[in-house]
Write a sequence for this structure.
RNA sequence: GGGCGGUUACCCAAGUGGCCAAAGGGGACUGACUGUAAAUCAGUUGUCAGAAGACUUCGAAGGUUCGAAUCCUCCACCGCCCA
């Protein structure tokens, strides 16, 4: 791959929110690649992950995919676990301060993060480090010195702080340390390239570069990845929005979740979380635009690709077949929870016992709305004894085999 | 530390003694239509009850009243201004 192609691939899916910045970063990236080639040394690339929960979702894999691209081009990739930054909580993507985690939680989460990351990254070529390694050694004086490189105004100008200020929501002092800590990570590792989401723009472009410069290093190149919308297609994918595709979900589930993503978000999914080259993606989009490819088929290709990244081709193929059977041909799924009918139980009893509705009122509502079927027949009442064993379907996708 | 304002259901938010289980919007859910997409249309969205209705709920606890989300007292938390 020549330098131009490398730059194109590495800049795919990036978003800077500012054309000039993007141009500048692209130019710097090119320069670094050339320089690295000349000197015959790999670039030091990293992305940090704060282990704030146990489950990673597709949104987290965007930057991993980007790291993987660097890895495949022969560069040195560090998967940095933010053991210390997680203690502070990144204010970037929240309108509220994050809950403070204990050191034990952080340690436990960090472990599972690395394991999950290796579904995308090449374990043999990945360094795993924790930022506690160097952040724990900073003294108060060190921290104060770091703070001398920034003004309060710079922080208040940040979009999310500015919003909170405007709305009268609290901004805690400790939140401002986050950027300093992250910037220091970059300096401590003498980073060439830092990868992160658009919410990290400030931390990377302002904090990281400035601190490196202050410490006499060449400022890093920020590769800022776009944000993946969740399954609703609008809000960013995040656990609290309930629109995530967990990377630990089953192949069938992953395939189905990707299929439920609105068309409008397809392009982002292709660019941010697949292994396809910019060229191949263009081809798919052209075909859809020209009408030679059905948008549904483009999405099936996407769902299959994503499932394959995590489960391999065979499982992705199987997931696709299940999907076709279940939803395109309206057959009931092969596997579903089972329930043993007890004497005298009504339809309501079964629905509630199986957790298919939260309360009897909700169940009543579902029946009234013709949302409950037994072997395909709509049930009119819920207070009658359960008619006969069979497949109970509540809504579109909740199934129960009643025996 | 002082002054003022706020806390309503999943979220935002209206409501300042009875007509309040509580407007409106968003979200979620169901049905129709579809490509398990979007858009659109119709409906549901505190719990129990077949229905009438009953019960619990407007930050917490007490109180006034025939009756309180609404008035009073105290407590907790948040914001703004002044230090």
């Amino acid at each position: 791959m020549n330098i131009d192609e490398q730059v194109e691939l590495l800049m795919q899916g990036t978003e800077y929110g500012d054309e000039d910045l993007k141009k500048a970063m692209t130019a710097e990236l090119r320069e670094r690649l050339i320089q690295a080639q000349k000197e015959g040394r790999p670039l030091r690339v990293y992305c940090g992950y704060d282990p704030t929960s146990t489950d990673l979702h597709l949104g987290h894999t965007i930057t991993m995919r980007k790291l993987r691209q660097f890895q495949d081009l022969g560069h040195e990739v560090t998967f940095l676990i933010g053991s210390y930054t997680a203690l502070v909580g990144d204010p970037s993507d929240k309108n509220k301060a994050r809950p403070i985690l204990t050191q034990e939680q952080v340690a436990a989460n960090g472990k599972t993060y690395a394991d999950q990351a290796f579904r995308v990254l090449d374990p043999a070529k990945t360094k795993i480090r924790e930022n506690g390694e160097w952040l724990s050694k900073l003294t108060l004086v060190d921290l104060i010195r770091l703070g001398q490189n920034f003004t309060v105004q710079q922080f208040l100008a940040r979009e999310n702080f500015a919003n909170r200020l405007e709305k009268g929501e609290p901004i805690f002092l400790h939140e401002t340390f986050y950027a300093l800590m992250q910037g220091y990570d970059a300096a401590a590792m003498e980073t060439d390239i830092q990868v992160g989401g658009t919410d990290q723009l400030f931390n990377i472009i302002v904090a990281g570069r400035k601190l490196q410069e202050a410490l006499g290093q060449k400022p890093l190149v920020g590769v800022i990845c776009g944000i993946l919308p969740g399954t609703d297609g609008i809000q960013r994918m995040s656990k609290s929005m309930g629109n995530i595709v967990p990377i630990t979900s089953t192949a069938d589930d992953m395939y189905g979740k990707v299929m439920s993503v609105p068309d409008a978000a397809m392009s982002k999914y292709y660019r941010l979380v697949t292994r396809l080259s910019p060229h191949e993606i263009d081809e798919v989009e052209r075909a859809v635009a020209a009408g030679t490819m059905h948008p549904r088929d483009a999405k099936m290709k996407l769902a299959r690709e994503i499932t394959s990244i995590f489960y391999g081709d065979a499982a992705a193929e199987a997931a696709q077949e299940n999907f076709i059977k279940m939803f395109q041909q309206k057959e009931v799924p092969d596997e579903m929870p089972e329930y043993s009918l007890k004497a005298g139980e009504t339809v309501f009893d079964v629905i509630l016992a199986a957790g298919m509705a939260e309360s009897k009122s909700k169940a009543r509502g579902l029946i009234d709305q013709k949302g409950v079927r037994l072997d395909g027949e709509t049930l009119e009442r819920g207070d009658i004894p359960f008619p006969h064993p069979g497949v109970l379907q509540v809504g579109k996708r909740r199934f129960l085999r009643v025996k």
